[in-house]
Amino acid sequence: MALSEEEQRLLEQLEASLAADDPKLAQTLGSSSTPRQIHGRRATLAGVLFVVGLVLLVVGMQTSWAVSVIGFIAMLVATVIALGSWRKATDSDARGKRTPPPNSEPFMGKMEDRWRRRQEGGF
């Protein structure tokens, strides 16, 4: 839920007074990274790890099967990191944007209405 302008102003005043009273605590509690930046970093990490795993997989095919297995595991871990980051990013973006569908009547209610219309002769 978004804050009103007055609540936002009060929050900024509280942050400023906290920073003035105890700068070390404010720095410890403050976050310089937004969630979008954090998910972007994780996605970048996953991409780099996937490429490294792919290279290890191909090189391992030429040298030793153990290197290929390590490459495959690295690719699997990168995929799990990417999917987890993507899921968290889409969940946090969708929280404020959810709206009920225009036709929010339950399925059974629709079916009962159709049945009633058929019984009354109006297809």
From TrEMBL:
Residues 110-123 have a biased composition (Basic and acidic residues). The keyword Transcription does not apply. It comes from the Bacteria. Residues 88-123 are annotated as: Disordered. The keyword Cell division does not apply. Keywords: Membrane, Transmembrane, Transmembrane helix. The chain crosses the membrane at residues 43-59, 65-86. This is DUF3040 domain-containing protein. It comes from Brooklawnia propionicigenes.
